[in-house]
Amino acid sequence: MSHPVTDIEALLQRHHHAPHRLVQVLRELQAQHGWLSRSSLKAVADGLHLPLAHVEGVAGFYRFFHTKPAGEYRVLFSDNITDRMLGSEALMQDLCLRLSVAPNAMRADGRVSVAATSCTGMCDQGPAALINHHQVVTRLTPARIAHMAALIEDQTPVANWPAEWLHRHDQIRSADILLGPQPAPGEALAQAIARGPQGTLDDIKRAKLRGRGGAGFATGTKWQLCRNFPGQTHYVVCNADEGEPGTFKDRVLLSSYADTVFEGMTIAALVVGASKGLMYLRGEYRCLLESLESVLARRRAQGLLGQSIQGREGFDFDVEIHVGAGAYVCGEESALIESLEGKRGTPRIRPPFPVEAGYLGQPTTVNNVETFCAAVHIAVQGADWWSKIGTPQSTGTKIHSVSGDCERPGLYEYPFGTRIGRILEDCGARDTQAVQVGGPSGVCLSALEFDRHIGFEDVPTAGAFMVFDRTRDMFEVARNFAQFFAHESCGFCTPCRVGTELVVRRMDKLKKGYGSSEDVRILYELDKLMHGATHCGLGAAACNPLRDTISKFRPAYEQHLKSLHFVPGFDMDAELSQARLATGRDDSGAHLETLT
């Protein structure tokens, strides 16, 4: 089935035939027709004056795009480790049996397809499943699976499914500044306008605000650099691509604190001199799009966006929302910009950095959702107030997305410097053996480290806080994370593309009982080889949970070891040689010569 060219032309007209709108064009085209046929991709390529290979390459990069029919109902089960702990794998198998459909395939009648996806951002309300890349069903049970199968067989529209299935709870368990009462819309902006761009920037710098996306770069420095670089225009980008498994704080901020988020973006625009803002909303949060657009419309009507904001002549700024299509790597700011420009989400070589040459080659500041919220409170209360909260190098508060083995999963906000054990006590964790802080790319802490503190000086975090009690196999936790990184690698560089797959193969070998202590040694070797050779941080961080769990939970690996097992057809030395060649390094870490 091909898609009418007239429909495609109307779609392209709405997007002004702009090539950098390609991802949004494909997303809307698929929403209309269910999938992307080759003829429709060719029509899009012709209409945007792009090579067909480029358009097909973009369509093939994002996991939420389908270049083959994918079923009237597309069900994606969250495959995050916390969902697995709650029985997601058995629930997925149950649904497949009830619908007579194989995993990762469409049923012959075109009715349904069932598969897994990395994480839906609903870790506190799992097991969860994403339906048609739009709605999320939470707290799945065998009874709900049976009911869901019946609704699909009856072709009941998802909008008519039980409302409680689709309801997303904020589950704010402990609120401080960012999750407490918010300033009225426009209040922080008025304060910033009164101080002026330089005065506001000075406050952000004196407050020592650091980015809340994980890296912790100084926000004031980033804004100043963006402001100082010349360009035809400057851009403010909100990174709402919250793809780190175990993290869901931004989902709540976007759901219930959107005014604060957009106000923070507008304050940033005042400082850097931007006239255009872009929010990159992760594909799994497509269900938030309408409510966010409603908030934007209201703010325009209130004079808080658009021309001459709050009566300040020349202060023109507006925000546009781009929805992602399923790619964890787009959480990296340069990959996010590539996606905004209608390309595959491949991280850029830096320098130049986005503050110098970002979106469409112009100076761009990219900040996390939570960072923009913090800027609003600093604008209202002042830098001195903020800088006295937390620690000298980690000022203010931090929101934690708590999930896993605890009585009260949800959001917990504390000043930086809070003890790990305090969070475990508050969330009702019992007999805890490990906490994964910051998601798979973060750090795994054992019970001996629960007196450590959250902060850039000790335990930095992007917000995920995953709890594992002593019934959990930490080898399986690390194996799930290894599978995640292998699945989410963009494939651009060989060390990451090959290295993550070799890690998964080695851990699968251990899982099957064919491993030996030599396999553990080679896993260490793969970590060393990948850490300094990958194109971006994804590959460098891919072995973090592996390294932590081997060193801190060695018995979890040893129970899988069979020292004298022989696996037919498996050549350990060949695999290690492949890893070394893939990363371009020898045993000492020196670069190998390239033969031409």
Number of helices: 24
Beta percentage is 5-15%
Instruction: Please compute the radius of gyration using only Cα atoms.
Output: 24 Å
Q: What's the mean pLDDT score?
A: 91
Strand segment count: 15
Helix-and-strand structural type: alpha/beta
Note the main attributes of this structure.
single chain; 596 residues; Glutaredoxin; 5-stranded mixed beta sheet; 15 strands; 43% helix; disordered C terminus
Structural write-up:
With 596 residues, this protein is α/β, with parallel strands linked by helices. It folds into five domains: 5-61, no CATH class; 73-169, Glutaredoxin (3-Layer(aba) Sandwich), CATH 3.40.30.10; 174-387, NADH-ubiquinone oxidoreductase 51kDa subunit (Rossmann fold, 3-Layer(aba) Sandwich), CATH 3.40.50; 399-467, Ubiquitin-like (UB roll); 474-583, NADH-ubiquinone oxidoreductase 51kDa subunit, iron-sulphur binding domain (de novo design (two linked rop proteins), Up-down Bundle). Helices cover 43% and strands 13% of the residues. It has 24 helices and 15 strands. It has helices at residues 5-14, 22-33, 38-48, 52-61, 81-85, 88-99, 142-153, 163-166, 187-206, 219-228, 249-256, 258-272, 289-301, 333-340, 369-381, 383-387, 420-427, 474-488, 494-511, 517-531, 537-541, 544-552, 554-558, 572-583, and strands spanning 73-78, 105-106, 112-117, 129-131, 135-137, 172-174, 235-240, 276-281, 318-323, 364-368, 397-404, 410-415, 432-437, 443-446, 464-469. The chain has a six-stranded mixed β-sheet. A five-stranded mixed β-sheet has the order 2-3-1-4-5, covered by helices on one side. Strand 13 (432-437) and strand 14 (443-446) form a beta hairpin. Helix 3 (38-48) crosses helix 4, helix 9 (187-206) packs across helix 12 (258-272) and helix 12 (258-272) packs across helix 15.
